[in-house]
From TrEMBL:
One Pfam family named in its UniProt record: Glyoxalase
The protein's name in its UniProt record: Glyoxylase I family protein
Residue span, VOC domain: 1-54
Length: 55
């Protein structure tokens, strides 16, 4: 397994929540196949986690 991904309804709100708690996320990108927005951030062990907007 490469990474875990979590669906979110509002990616901007999720990233703002992470930032408010001192967690940096990568720039938001758009999936070229689905047109949906996503970003990555690191867990405490520096493993990648993905947020994928479905809302």
């Amino acid at each position: 397994m490469r990474h875990l991904a979590f669906r979110v309804d509002d990616l901007d709100a999720a990233v703002a929540h992470l930032n408010a708690h001192g967690v940096a996320a990568e720039d938001i990108r758009v999936d070229q196949y689905t047109g949906r927005r996503f970003t990555f951030f690191a867990d405490p062990d520096d493993l990648p986690l993905e947020l994928y907007e479905v809302g």
